[in-house]
Amino acid sequence: MRMSHTFTKTLRNAPKDETAKNGAYLTRAGYVHKEMAGVYDYLPLGLRVIEKIKGIVREELNAIGCEEVLMSALQNPEPWEKTGRFSDQEVDIWFKTELSAGGELGLAPTHEEPMVNMLKSYISSYKDLPLYVYQFQTKFRNELRAKSGILRGREFLMKDLYSFHTSEEDLDKFYAEVEKAYARIYERVGLGDDTYETFASGGIFSKYSHEYQTLLPVGEDTIYHNKDYSVVLNKEVLNDETLADLGVKREDLLEETAAEVGNIFKLKFKYSEPLGLKFSDENNEQKTVYMGCYGIGISRVMGVIAEKFADDKGLVWPEAVAPFKYHLVAIGDSGTKKAEEIYALHSDEILFDDRGNVRPGEKFADAELIGLPYRIVISDKTLAEDSAEITVRATGESRLVALDKIFNN
Ligand code: ATP
Ligand code: MG
To answer: Residue of 105, 321, 338, 396 with fewest CB within 10 Å of its CB?
Structure first.
């Protein structure tokens, strides 16, 4: 991608209403554009980050046998009425609208009901199970407060996975597989060191669910953990019963602020029962399907990464989710000529600052703001040594590297 060509521009200052660091930097660096509170557009750089995160999630889920779909965002109230969740008393964040032909529609805040309803057309026998179906989908939630940049949106991107089983043992087995896949996902996107699986409330069908919480000072959640983080729980389950279950004492727990980046639930019959999702077993008896559901807030993960690693100069992307690996800065005529040659060979991995009318200092400041892992500078000075200067964004370390060895790392 050429900076002379892209329509986005870096901004010196963040808009006044952008109080969260992630929103401020992502806006200034041209990753997102705010439409209104809690509603963002993803621009070329931002979309690439989203796609990188999705790519990692997709790889890990496909590796445990999941199938990807894309379901409608428009919701027929019918299946939601069967579970009682079309009611605004039950679910207080609905966006609803009217059909011009008459009748009401909802904009999906999540997809349990339509997923179960859809699969009724395909599941009839134990031979059809187990099934693991997921999507990356835009969700709509009329959140009361949306002021943390892309951390809490009224429209946001979620990965939602639903699993379907003939028995509780099979659900438990798959749940454990997802736990492992989630650990790999958070590790790969760069959040492994600070993301913990926490005990959370489970609802009627299982005692606990699990959340994935990333330590973050601006996070909205409070978690409690023992010294070595071998036991972590969230606020809603901090009670005598949970403490006994987990074998910890209240006075040994420390409080910390975190952001929920995902969660997993054993739903059992919560949705399959009211929606009548059944299968016939080996003896031709009709049984209700066991279910689990597993979410990851894709756009929130992007915001958490932005927020967590940013320094006073701008964003700092982990390599696996950076929109490009290299930020190539050309200085002067001969630097530009050489940089053009390099760009032609590696354009997929390079954001190329080929702007002719911009001072080097401004290019460097933009590179720091945009936050790609490696900055490559080619100028008369580096060319005199047949080299380029490579600077690591995260550490600020610079070194001269021979031109033919730039891409060896
Ligand atoms: P929260 O407690 O933060 O509102 P939730 O319990 O409502 O989250 P789910 O409905 O289970 O979350 O959604 C799955 C994941 O989607 C969450 O773990 C979170 O990462 C993300 N998420 C939820 N709400 C939002 C939102 N308004 N904006 C961005 N991401 C969200
Ligand atoms: Mg919520």
So the answer is: 396
* 143 pocket-lining for ligand 1 (C-beta < 6 Å): yes
91 contact partners, CB below 8 Å, separation of at least 6: 85, 109
Residue 120 class from Cβ within 10 Å (0-12 exposed, 13-18 middle, 19+ buried)?
A: middle
The length of the chain in residues reads 409
The pLDDT, as a whole number, for residue 409 is 62
Q: What is the CATH number of the domain that holds 169?
A: 3.30.930.10
From the alpha carbon of 263, which atom of ligand 1 is closest?
Answer: 18
First-to-last C-alpha distance (Å) of the chain: 21
pLDDT tier, 88 (very low <50, low <70, confident <90, very high otherwise): very high
Predicted confidence (pLDDT) at residue 258 exceeds the cutoff of 90: yes
- Domain edge (last residue) among 275, 309, 343: 309
Q: Which atom of ligand 1 is nearest to the CA of 141?
A: 27
Using pLDDT thresholds of 50, 70 and 90, give the confidence band for residue 203: confident
- Kindly give the distance from the C-alpha atom of residue 140 to the centroid of ligand 2, in angstroms, as a whole number: 11
Instruction: Say how far apart CA 284 and CA 378 lie, in whole Å.
Output: 72
Q: Which atom of ligand 1 is the closest one to the Cα of 143?
A: 27
Give me the mean pLDDT over the 177-187 stretch. 98
Q: Which of 135, 158, 191, 222, when mutated, tests ligand 1's pocket best, judged by the most ligand atoms within 8 Å of its CB?
A: 158
Determine contact, residues 80/45, Cβ cutoff 8 Å: no
The total domain count for the chain is 2
Cβ distance 57 to 92 under 8 Å? no
Domain range holding 29? 21-309
Of the candidates 255, 274, 309, which is a domain's last residue?
309
Given a contact cutoff of 8 angstroms between Cβ atoms, the answer to whether 160 and 134 are in contact is yes
Could you read off the pLDDT of 291-342 as tens digits, one per residue? 999 999 999 999 999 999 999 999 999 999 999 999 999 999 999 999 999 9
Q: Would the pLDDT of 94 be above 70?
A: yes
Ligand 1 proximity of 221 Cβ (cutoff 6 Å): no
Per the prediction, the chain carries an average pLDDT of 96
Query: What's the pLDDT score for residue 206?
Result: 85
Pull the structure tokens for residue 227.
């010294």
Written as six digits, the tokens of 302 are 């992007």
Is 315 part of a structural domain of the chain?
Answer: no
Quick one: 140 and 112 in the same domain? yes
Q: Looking at the CA of residue 158, tell me the nearest atom of ligand 1.
A: 16
Q: Tell whether 269 and 341 lie within a shared domain.
A: no
